[in-house]
Specification:
Blueprint: E1 14-16, H1 19-22, H2 28-44, E2 48-51, H3 57-62, E3 71-74, E4 93-95, E5 101-103, H4 104-109, E6 124-125, H5 127-135, E7 136-139, E8 150-152, H6 156-161, E9 168-169, E10 178-179, H7 181-191, E11 197-199, E12 204-210, E13 215-220, E14 226-234, E15 237-245, E16 254-262, E17 265-272, E18 274-276, E19 289-292, E20 301-310
Length: about 300
């Protein structure tokens, strides 16, 4: 569903690009009445703010244009959501004979029968709402983590699925920090400087891992990227893998090789580090190294060698 908070900052608002199209057919008197309603509604309940100016939003911000007359308040942002699935409406939008709306996928789910009035739905498009959807921009949900993108509302979910500012949580269980990947790197190196083993890409890293130790944290010295070596004891031995704390949309791929040795025996894994947004509670990732139970040394430790490649 749409955010029902009361944004006052235009950066977090919904922006309409083509108001002439939306006001087509409006008379000066109706525009004046609309402006009057806007002033009253803004004072009463502000939920979604829509930019009425036709100038570029970034330019207006750069020029310090805070003119409130360029904004229109909509007190019911749910109008832009499908009343059946509650997701953002996307084109095509259909309406029944009584004007009830539905997205195309929901028309199929309800077998073209309007759940509000039982009339037929799925054949008549609602062009007016489609025009609004084409013109509306909204801020990303990751705005508070640093994303400044203003995206088309109908494509908001696609953007957020690939947003580089998706929140990542601190891998330490007693820390509740959440932020974008670069902020997490700064946080970890500042607040937990002794909790990770520093390393450099392409260099071999010797690791002595306790059999029952679930996690081993590493932080790259130059970029600050955080990696977690996960360990889980199973019947046949220890299941070990490595993941990178970064949003799934991160463009950069990272590969690694992991070696466990014991008295001349060796097991090795060459894989890609999966991107995760926080500490992994189990090793249910796609790839892992199975280290036999008798690989543990006399002190009950596994001797590992890890190398993370900068790709």
């Amino acid at each position: 569903m749409a955010n029902t908070s009361a944004p006052r900052d235009p950066v977090g608002s919904v922006k309409v690009l083509d108001w002439d199209a939306l006001l087509l057919g409006s008379t000066p008197s109706t525009k004046k009445r609309r402006s009057t309603r806007h002033d009253q509604q803004e004072q009463a309940s502000s939920k979604v703010i829509i930019d009425r100016s036709k100038s570029d939003y970034g330019s207006a911000q750069a020029n310090g244009d805070p003119d409130p007359s360029n904004f229109l308040t909509i007190t019911d942002p749910d109008l832009l959501d499908c009343p059946i699935c509650f997701n953002n409406l996307s084109i095509p939008v259909f309406q029944c004979l009584n004007g009830h709306l539905a997205c195309s996928s929901c028309c199929i789910k309800v077998r073209n029968k309007c759940p509000s009035c039982s009339s037929t739905i799925g054949h008549n498009r609602c062009r007016a709402v489609e025009k609004i959807i084409e013109s509306v921009r909204t801020s990303c949900r990751n705005k508070k983590y640093g994303c400044t993108e203003m995206v088309f509302r109908c494509k908001k979910r696609d953007h957020e699925d690939m947003c580089n500012y998706a929140p990542c949580s601190c891998p330490l269980p007693d820390c509740d920090f959440i932020g974008c990947s670069p902020d997490l790197s700064v946080h970890f190196s500042t607040e937990h400087p002794d909790s990770a083993k520093p390393f450099c890409y392409n260099n071999r890293i010797p690791i002595s891992l306790e059999l029952q130790q679930k996690h081993f944290i590493l932080q790259e010295e130059q970029e600050g990227t955080i990696f977690v070596l996960n360990n889980e004891v199973q019947n046949l031995g220890n299941v070990i893998n490595v993941c990178c704390i970064a949003p799934s949309s991160a463009k950069r791929g990272v590969s690694y090789d992991l070696i466990a040795t014991n008295k001349g025996r060796l097991v090795k894994l060459l894989s890609s580090a999966e991107h995760v947004c926080g500490r992994v509670e189990n090793t249910s990732l796609k790839s892992f190294l199975m280290v036999p139970g008798d690989f543990a040394g006399s002190c009950g430790q596994l001797e590992l060698e890890l190398r993370i490649f900068d790709t």
